Amino acid sequence: MNVKDQYERPIISLRLSLTNRCNLNCLYCHHDGMILTEDEMTSDEIYQILKIAKKIGIQKIRLSGGEPLLRRDIVEIVEKTASLNFKDISITTNGIGLKKYAKPLKDAGLNRLNISFDSLNPNTYEKITSKNLLHEAKEGILQAQKVGLFPVKINMVVMKDINEKEIMDMFEFSKENNLVLQLIELIKSDSCENDDFSIEHHYSLDNLEKDLENMADEVKTRKFMQDRKKFFIDGGEIEIVHPIDNTKFCQNCTRLRLTPEGKIKPCLLKNDNLVDIITPIREEKSEEELENIFLKGIYNRKPYFTD
Ligand SMILES: Nc1nc2c(ncn2[C@@H]2O[C@H](COP(=O)(O)OP(=O)(O)OP(=O)(O)O)[C@@H](O)[C@H]2O)c(=O)[nH]1
Ligand SMILES: C[S@@+](CC[C@H](N)C(=O)[O-])C[C@H]1O[C@@H](n2cnc3c(N)ncnc32)[C@H](O)[C@@H]1O
Ligand code: SF4
Ligand code: SF4
Q: Membrane-spanning regions, if any (predicted)?
């Protein structure tokens, strides 16, 4: 089965937020758009939801959070996910736990990783994350690379007056270590604790995109990935995530989300259209009923930014 939403967007990927807990406290964090509850699904409940996802045609799974590596059963979750033969399983992490987990996760069936890393400067890193853990994050990145997870992407949220001058240094670091650099525009959302920060430090990626276009040996567009652009420069790769007021980004959005407590979330930036799937699972409803609940989540999808 291959499902489309009411706007003819195929549903290709599911992003599971495994927890709202985190070991960093980034100034800009949007918590993947979550309402911050403490409830977390068990790995068996997650597995049941993934089975329905597979059945309705979801191909790609992303595990995120909060910090997904804080889940003690993270390896078991990846193992269970891998047993369902999805095309792609990835994790977004701050990298602090990777020294310990990169190899077990790879062995459990993880394909790739995105690692948040906004600065190579220890003071700036600490200012952003409120923890003096740059060294651990960097070690985690290199460990992921070493155990053969590929590609490893660096997620760098670009912020005015904080790290915007570091883009080229981060690109050099990425090239040297065979990493893809993903530059992310700072998003303002209801789930950011500090609204003023997102406004004050917003840095538009428009001009940078034009500069990269001129510098690039090749430019590619990721069609089912929000029409994002990838720039190939001097043997390195930069991808731009430019979601704000970007109608094309939303027109090409093919992802559904799941909250840690078990609700289907149709859009990162909205919380008024969630669909509870964990209660019916705990009530042992039939497969058909559970599938219909999933489809209701898809039915609720709507592009956030429109013309
Ligand atoms: N507006 C919006 N922003 C998103 C969405 N998904 C991801 N982002 C932003 O994109 C950034 C990177 O997300 P990741 O979790 O690393 O995954 P990704 O880049 O979307 O996925 P891949 O490129 O396939 O690895 C995050 O900072 C999010 O803020 C989305 O659906 N809508
Ligand atoms: C919420 S974090 C969860 C996963 C993990 N803790 C991490 O930091 O990678 C997922 C991604 O969202 C990004 N992010 C968080 N708040 C953001 C914001 N306000 N604007 C843009 N990206 C943001 C982070 O940089 C990270 O790459
Ligand atoms: S961006 Fe990731 S690492 Fe930073 S506070 Fe948010 S969840 Fe934690
Ligand atoms: S509709 Fe737009 S804002 Fe909402 S999740 Fe998709 S890309 Fe993000």
A: none
